[in-house]
Amino acid sequence: MASDMSHRHLTITQLANVTGLKRMEVRHFVEMLEAKGVLLERECMTPQFWSLSPFGGWLRRAISGAAGGR
User: Fold this and answer.
1) CA 50 to CA 64: how far, in whole Å?
2) Averaged over 52-57, what is the pLDDT?
3) Who contacts 22 (Cβ-Cβ below 8 Å, separation ≥6)?
4) Regarding predicted confidence, which is higher, 65 or 3?
5) Is 9:45 a contact under the CB 8 Å cutoff?
6) Inter-residue contact 18 to 10 (CB < 8 Å)
7) DSSP annotation string for 37-50
8) Cα–Cα distance between 4 and 13 in angstroms, integer?
9) What are phi and psi for residue 46, nearest 5 degrees?
10) Average pLDDT, stretch 35-51?
11) 3-class DSSP state for residue 56?
12) Stronger pLDDT, 63 or 18, i.e. the higher one
């Protein structure tokens, strides 16, 4: 969970889904990290033009097209 948190912004719900933990367990973990002063809060999200979403969509279409043609 700490690795996922260090790579990108995730909501409590997203962290719970990724880890399989309950939301309350994730919340307690994050609160514990915050109490120890080890969390860094980012001021703003990464600008949209840095997103790999367009590339990811293209890659999924390219792979599914290649797999469908075989």
Assistant:
1) 24
2) 63
3) 16
4) 3
5) yes
6) yes
7) T-----SSPPPGGG
8) 13
9) -65, 135
10) 66
11) helix
12) 18
Q: What is the largest CA-CA distance in the chain?
A: 54
Whether the pLDDT of residue 16 is over 80: the answer is: yes
- What mean pLDDT is predicted for residues 30-59? 69
**Dist. CA 48–CA 54, nearest whole Å:** 10
Q: pLDDT tens digits, residue range 20-37? A: 999 999 999 989 988 998
Answering whether pTM is above 0.90, one says no
Q: How far apart are the first and last CA of the chain?
A: 38
How many CB atoms are closer than 10 A to CB 26? Answer: 22
The closest alpha carbon to 9, from 56, 51, 62, 61, belongs to 51
Burial class (CB in 10 A: 0-12, 13-18, 19+), 57: exposed
